[in-house]
């Protein structure tokens, strides 16, 4: 199934949730979101062909399904406390 076909039926639309400077923390948060049944996509230079884990290039961006954004934000708030 092509991505375009899914979009035409109103399926998952991803939006950025949070940007985290620590890749380990980002992976833990992504795992927590997935455990709650939220689709997660993790983006960052660390995951590219030439991983960079220093300074601002180490930042990881977590994207989630837009329809679950409020729930994801609550999970982020709990995760950071």
Q: Mind explaining what this structure looks like?
A:
The chain is α+β, with helices and mostly antiparallel strands and 81 residues long. The protein has a single domain (13-79), classed as 2-Layer Sandwich (Alpha-Beta Plaits), CATH 3.30.70. The protein is 37% helix and 22% strand. The chain has 3 helices and 3 strands, in the order H-E-H-E-E-H. A 3-stranded antiparallel β-sheet has the order 1-3-2, with helices on one face. It is globular and about 30 Å long. The protein starts with a helix and ends with a helix. The model is unreliable at 1-10 (pLDDT under 50).
Question: What structural keywords apply?
Answer:
single chain, 81 residues, alpha+beta, Alpha-Beta Plaits, three-stranded antiparallel sheet, 3 strands, 37% helix, disordered N terminus
Write down the overall geometry: globular
- What is the CATH topology descriptor? Alpha-Beta Plaits
Strand order within the widest sheet?
1-3-2
Q: What's the domain count?
A: 1
Quick one: CATH class? Alpha Beta
Uncertain stretches of 5 or more adjacent residues: 1-10
Write the H/E string, N to C: HEHEEH
Structural class: alpha+beta
Helix amount, in percent? Answer: 25-40%
Largest sheet: 3 strands, antiparallel
Mean pLDDT: 80
Q: Number of DSSP strands?
A: 3
What does this entry show, briefly?
This protein is α+β, with helices and mostly antiparallel strands and 81 residues long.
